[in-house]
Amino acid sequence: MGARRGPPTPDMRVWTPTFVGVSWWRSVSAIYNVIPAQAGIQMRFNRARTVLLAFASLALAAAPLRAEQEPTAVPIVIKFSHVAAPQAHKSLAGEHFKKLAEEYTHGRVKIELYPNSQLYKDKEELEALQLGAVQMLAPSVSKFGPLGIKAFEVFDLPYIFAGYDELAKVTEGEVGRELLNKLESKGLIGLAYWNNGFKILSANSQLLGPDDVLGLKMRIQASKVIEAQMWALGALPQVMAFSEAYQALSSGVVDGTENTPANMYNQKMFEVQKHATLTNHGYLGYAVISNAKFWKGLPPDIRAALERAIAETTPVANKLARDENEAAMAEMKASGRTVFHEPTPEEMAAWRAAMLPVHDEMANRVGRDLIDRIYAATGHKPATQ
Ligand code: SIN
Asked: Which of the residues 193, 205, 311, 355 has an alpha carbon 20 to 30 A from that of 109?
């Protein structure tokens, strides 16, 4: 602790050793000084003084110890970093979690939210979490492949989920939990899934079927399954950080991309994409994660309170995401910047036929067994041949 200049403040007097000892001893002496100095009294006074001095020195020794043992007023800070825009549903979900977490821990935890890649981009944020520079993230599950957890890319298989109900059977079920547990081997802990939504394709040219994507450079997340899906369409996949997607689209470094309506709107991609097709071909969602060592080192009551806050935030986050995807679509249509195309049943069949072989193609990477378990959990096995 650095030396403090200036007079002691009233709170310092509570425990500053010299102050306690001297003032207390002065009071005791003062009492004895008013007693008449008669024979025998002085002797008893001396004995009493010795005893009191012993107590005083004990008090002096104990005083700094007491101060150290007092609960610190400094809260545990959790830096929660992510790449989505401040107005995006992930940010709103983060704010909801912050409110509950601070309330349930009675202020012993302070959640600091850092949206919009302001601290770290996609890849860096995972490294920062592993190193302990931040304590919480909610990255897209498509970004765990480069970390070595390829199984998460199962979520990227095109048309593996027919909708939100099927998806919930995995994210809220045994398979989802087992996938989160795999993060521990990388020093991370998986706490929950928060949805974004289903992806659509966009470009500056009309996309009526796979032939229209042929040769287009498409920005994707760092997932080998998404890469294979773009190759299957005849496109040229370009892995790029989320924070760089808008610039790459607007400058023509890439021709198109895939994303949810909410992301397309919040990142203003619709301003630089003339066409989009509502293929709804793939899921985009987040895993709320922490550094395992940090999380397990939290006092048990704090950890329980945070887990409760996350569990209660999850349904709120999922509702925010669905509402925002709908609102974003309405806003983008109203803006007239992008023309949105709803595929006909025949066109949809052509998109599915082009992309579904990726399930078998990527089975070795994500695990055949895992894919089959997802088909079983959802009760939906798309025709992949
Ligand atoms: C996100 O929604 O957090 C990012 C998704 C992307 O990189 O496309």
From this structure: 193
